[in-house]
Amino acid sequence: LIIGVSGTALQKNVSVAKPTKVELTCKLDEHSNLKNPQVTWKKGSETISHTSKTRNSWTIQLTISESSQLGSYSCILKGEVEVSATFHLQVPNIEGKERPIITYEGDLAVMVCKTEYAPMDWTWYLTNGTELVPINPFSQTNKFRTKKLSANVNRLEILKLTKEDIGVYWCEAAFRLGSSKKRFELKVLSIMAPLKPFLAVVAEVVILVTTIALYEVYSKKKEKEGEREFDQIEQL
């Protein structure tokens, strides 16, 4: 739905997991001041014709059978002002944790990927330099384990974490029209890491107590030396 305000450029993502027919419609708000606009549909920069129109809406019908037919489709309305709306046809995105996964040596790391539609297959990768190395949980049972929680949710578990497990992992969902990937960053801390702030505080307390004790010893020593000097003066 296009309001018709100058400079408006609406965006909408449309997930397409398999070959299908798609109908895209731009409808001008009935209260808009934009009257009888000239309407152009484009795929990227290429102009295409719309297949149907009513008084305030314009529609194109697409048959998506291969990945090259995905992309951005825009309707551009020109009148006293120019407004537009763009539909981004793409394979479904993967949802997952955005922040780095931080855990400790010996613990378990869990990564979960979820998609809107069920993919044909899931694959997990470990980044090695510039390459993505597939993870095979069947040959590395003591390190990796995968679980299919549902048709559109997959989970990777990394067991008995060590510093060597630090790195970037990817999950890939394969659809008939292409694939999507999701990035995960894993950080593994030493078991002593949580104790470092505590040990630092303990060290500061020890230094403070030692300083106070030494000052008291020094003060008493000076006090005794002063008493001896006073006694000597009295004797004189």
Q: Please bin the fraction of helical residues.
A: 10-25%
Order of helices and strands: EEEEEEEEEEEEEEEEEH
Question: What would CATH call the homologous superfamily of the largest domain?
Answer: Immunoglobulins
User: Compute the gyration radius: what is it?
Assistant: 34 Å
Q: So how many helices?
A: 1
Classification by helices and strands: alpha+beta
Characterize the biggest β-sheet.
5 strands, mixed
Mean pLDDT: 85
Number of domains: 2
The name CATH uses for the topology of the largest domain is Immunoglobulin-like
> So what's the CATH class of the largest domain?
Mainly Beta
User: Could you tell me the strand content as a percent range?
Assistant: over 45%
Low-confidence stretches: none
- In the sheet with the most strands, the strands line up as 1-8-7-3-4
Q: What is the molecular shape? A: elongated
CATH architecture of the largest domain: Sandwich
Question: How many beta strands in the DSSP annotation?
Answer: 17
Task: Note the gap between the termini.
Answer: 109 Å
